[in-house]
Amino acid sequence: MTIVGVFEPDYPVAKEVVNKMFDSFIKQEIPDADITYVGVEIEDGLSESVVCERLTKPSPTVIIDTTRRPRAIGNRAGTLVKKVVRKMGIPTVSATYGKMNGIMEWENLSNTEKQYLVQIPPPGYIITQVIPPFVYKHVDENGTVTFSGYCVELLDEIKEILNFDYTISETKDNKFGTMNDKLEWDGMIRDLVDKRAEIALGPISVMAERETVVDFTVPYYDLVGISILMKKPSVPSSLFKFLTVLEANVWACILAAYFITSYYNNKEKYKDDDEDEKTRISSVEKKVSGVCYCGGEAPRNLSGRLVAATWWLFGFIIIASYTANLAAFLTVSRLDSPIESLDDLAKQYKIKYAPQESTSAATYFERMAYIEEKFYEIWKNMSLDDSLNETERAKLAVWDYPVSDKYTKIWWTMKETGMPKTFDEGIEKVLASKGSQEGFAFIADSTQVKYAVMINCELIAVGSEFSRKPLALAVQQGSPLKDQLSSAILKLLNQRKLEGLKEKWWNKNPFKKECDDSEQQSDGISIANIGGVFIVIFIGVVLAVVTLIVEYFLYKKKKRTHTRVVSVDRYPKDDKYPKDRHRRR
C-alpha cells in the first residue's frame, strides 16, 4: 500500500504534519501493514500534465492532499491537484478538509476526518448482498464466483469513468444494516463502519440513522417505497357455471313444471294421426316459446289459457332471477381481493403479515410504533398536568383516541406473526397461503416485490408504495470516494445510461415470465365460464343429426311396409279397376 503525501514547497508545515501523520499515527494504528510513504511537492504554475505525471509515478493507493484551498481561480497548486486526482479516480483525503486558515495540526483533526486513513482494504474492495435484479450470484463448475445485475453493470460503467479495479465479496449475514438497542450495526453498514470494505453495493435505502455512520452517493435509482406482496386471487372457473346459479332441486322443479304444463289431455280423436301427433308436439313447443317471449298460438279454451298465462308468469320470474344471480356470481368471483392497502391489512385478522427482519421495512414499522408511543406519552403528561385549569384541560379533551395506535397494533401483529429471516422464506410463506382471504402477506421493498411478481405469476403486488426513499451506494464516512462516485453517477444519468440499465434488467430480464395481466382483463364473461353453453348447443346439434338419420331410415322402412306391389298379369286387360286399387297404400 503506497501513500502519497502532496504538499506545497512554500508551506513547510504541511510536510511536517504529513510525516507526523505517517510516523506517529498510521504506523501505530496499522503496525503489520506493508505501507510505503512517498512525498510529492506541487508548486504553483505547473501544467496539468506535469502534476499528473508526478502524482502517478509512485503508483499511489491513497493520496493525502495537504495543499491549501485556493482563494482565486488560476493555476494554483491546490486547484491542479484536486482537478487531477478527480480525473485519476484515486482515493484522496484532504488533510485540511477545505479549511481556509491553512493546515490543521494532526491532533486537532476530528475522528471522522482521521478515520479514512486507518483503513487498509485493497483498492475497490466492495461488499454486496444478492438481491435480484440488482445483484445476481453465479458459481461455475470450478467454484468461481461471479456477480452480475443492475448494480454490477452500474459499477462497470463507473469503472470506465474513474479507471479503477474492484473486488466484490458477499456480506456474511446477508443484511443491509440496522442498528440495535446497543447502537451496534450489522450487515453491509457494519462492514463499512469496521472498514472491511470501501463500497456497499446494492439497493441500499438512504436512511437518516445510516447517514450518521456512513456516507451515501447521489441516488442511482428512483424513489423506492414499501409494498405488500400477496398470492394472486384465484378466480374459479367452470364451463357449466351457468348451471350452478340454481341448485339441483330448483332445476328439477323447473323441469317437472315444464312437463306437467306441457301434458296434452285432449281426448278427442283426430281424423288424421299426423294431425294428432302435430298437436302433441306443438303443446310442448308452446311452453318453450312462452318462456322465450316468442309468442305463439293461444289456446282456445279457458283452462288452456290459464295454464299458458301461469306458465308465462312463472318463466318471467325464473329468467329474471336467473339473470340476476348469474351476474352476481360472475361479479363476486372477480372481486375476490379484499386487501387493497396497509389499512385493509390492519383491519382484518385472517391474513397474517410481516416484513423481513433487519430490513428498512422492519425498521420503518418499528420507528412508527415508537413515535406513536412517544406522542401518546406527551399527550398523557399534558392532559394530566395539575397546573392546567379547566379551560386548558378541555382543549386537550377529544372524543376519540387522541393519537392513532395504527402502527402500534401493526408492529405488535408483526412480532406475533414472526418475521421471515430471508426474502425467499417470505415468498414461500406467501405461496403457501390458501388464497387472497387467508394466509400471509409479505411486506418488502417495492423493487423486490416487483421482481418477485415478474418471475412468478402466482404473486401480485397490492396497494401503492409508502415510505419512499432513494437508493444509493454507501461508502465509509469521510471517504473521498463519495464525491468521485457521485460525479460518475451524475455523468451516467446525463448520458441516459441508467435508463438503459433499467430497460435491460427489468423489461428485458431473461427470467421475466409472461403472465396474464388481471388489470387489463375484460370485465366480460370469459369462455371458461360460459363455454358450457356452446357444449350444450353442440350436443344438441349432434343429437339432432343422429335423430334425423334414425327418422330417415324409419320413414323409408315404414313407407316400404305400407307399399304393396301389384302384378299386372294377375288381372285381365279389360278389367279397368281392380279391387285393390282403392286400398290405402
TrEMBL record:
It is found in: Membrane. InterPro entries: Glu/Gly-bd, Ionotropic_Glu_rcpt, Iontro_rcpt_C. It comes from Argiope bruennichi. The keyword Nucleotidyltransferase does not apply. This is Ionotropic receptor 25a like protein. Residues 124-508 form the Ionotropic glutamate receptor C-terminal domain. SMART domains: Lig_chan-Glu_bd, PBPe. Keywords: Glycoprotein, Ion channel, Ion transport, Ligand-gated ion channel, Membrane, Receptor, Transmembrane, Transmembrane helix, Transport. It is a multi-pass membrane protein. GO terms for cellular component: membrane. Belongs to the glutamate-gated ion channel (TC 1.A.10.1) family. One of its GO terms (molecular function) is ligand-gated monoatomic ion channel activity.
